[in-house]
Amino acid sequence: MRAEPMQALREFILNRNPKLEDLPDDLDLIDSRAINSLAFVEFIFLLEELTGEPIDPEDVDLDDFRTLVAIEATFFMKEAA
User: Fold this and answer.
1) Residue 28 has what DSSP assignment?
2) C-alpha dihedral sign at 54, 66, 61, 35
3) Burial bucket for residue 2 (CB in 10 Å: 0-12, 13-18, 19+)
4) CB-based burial, 43-72: b 16+ in 10 Å, e otherwise
5) CA 81 to chain CA mean position, Å
6) pLDDT digits over 34-81, tens only?
7) To which CATH superfamily is domain 3-79 assigned?
8) Where are the domains of the chain?
9) Per residue in 20-34, pLDDT tens?
10) Which residues contact 65 (CB under 8 A, 6 or more apart)?
11) pTM for the model
């Protein structure tokens, strides 16, 4: 697990949601509105920066962004495979 990038994502979400006291790894970030449509583009840019890989908006599957677990598996664990 790459703790530093995941911590950066966690901080990004928490900084934009001051009412969130905790951010469980399995919280649905989209349904809970922890990442709203306005922050989503900025979130994608942060992911690109952290992974060093471009993310094509045409290939985006929202399920890849639903939880921190899904984000880690999709964008960080594939490097270990």
Assistant:
1) -
2) negative
3) middle
4) bbebbeebbeeebeeeeeeeeebbbbebbb
5) 20
6) 999 889 999 999 999 999 999 987 888 999 999 999 999 999 986 554
7) ACP-like (1.10.1200.10)
8) 3-79
9) 988 999 999 999 999
10) 29, 30, 35, 40, 43, 71
11) 0.86
